[in-house]
Amino acid sequence: MHVLLLAIGSHGDVHPFVGIGAALRARGHQVSIVANPHFESLIRREDLRFVPLGTAESYRSLATNPDLWHPTRGFEVVFRLGLQPMLRPMYDIVAAENRPGETVVAGSSLALGARLAQEKLGLPLATVHLAPSVFRSVYQPPVLSGMTLPSWMPRPIQRFLWSAVDLLVIDRLTGGPLNAVRAELGLTPVRGILRDWWHSPQRVIGLFPDWYGPPQPDWPPQTRLTGFPLYDERGFEPLSEDLRRVLDEGEPPIAFTPGSAMWLGKKFFEASAEACRRMGRRGLLLTRHREHLPPSLPPGVVHVEYAPFSELLPRCAALVHHGGIGTTAQALACGVPQLIMPMGHDQFDNGARAVKLGVAKTIRLADYEPAQVADALTALLFSPETGRNAKAVAARFRDNDWLERTCELIEGLAETSTAAPA
Length: 422
Hints:
This protein is of the alpha/beta class. The chain is 41% helix and 13% strand. Helix 6 links the parallel strand 4 and strand 5. Helix 1 crosses helix 16, helix 5 crosses helix 6 and helix 10 crosses helix 14.
């Protein structure tokens, strides 16, 4: 079987598909991953076939756009600059890679070109969502940066408000470009694009467990949850000798990261370093962008370019981060308290779920100042309840067979029938 995986987004979006691709290849399948060339070396390192989409320059341009992390303008930036130019090229790649009767496709949330190819060509497709925030619900509404509906609000009112958002915002932004490509392909226009259409009618896979994002009655009925993907390049990027020496020298440090896609993290690291100095704690500043660091660091605070979280976090006292689903999941698996500073997209919802589990606190971006960070971390580190909760959540990962179940769901696409091509 030929499995075509479309990983659209940052490292946090690509890592899960590399892990899935490696597992499918080990199960005897031919695997191709469609992604930005920025991730070519990561994909080829797992002996997976790489298919380029876009350019590394376009990825960098999007990642360095300050509005990418604006709580309300972020989605528009992602669609207009990152997704809209890729709709037709994405479709063309899937069409060219498709071997009728042999190919099955699994694409991330933004792989809308693959959804077009499914509709036009009738090929088998699974939509893979990494976080529960992409599922709308009037039973347990997701926590979003621009619109959060309280669960006590009557459901008919919630449905009306969501319809208004579709009509006035989402479909107006996405409908024109998407329906223009649909017209080129001889397909009729669609509405409710992020309400219904972007979910594959055959299979939707949620890469998170039900104790983190319990399925709701109004989620797509074809949804199946597997579990958190914890692929983090372990084995390819081991802890360096210098880092091991730092970890061995004293009390567990606090790790800080604004996420792999955050290329504008100077203020974050300045405040983080100063918070460590005020607390008298050791700290690790994780970033591949040395230019984001302060000119000098306090004693005990060191820079780390990259380290697999599965190896690093068990040796840390806490993790301070942006709330990306991959980072959140790694911290949950390693049983460390979290201070989450959400900036956009799924991060507000992930932060709220971690707080509900009793393992985290959140802090607003505007409040990320040394004194506030130090106070929040002190409360986390000296809370016995937080420590107990973190260990209890980590214990839930002991029998984590998410990868096998995800592979089985993708393999099962070969046995499903699709709608006739348009």
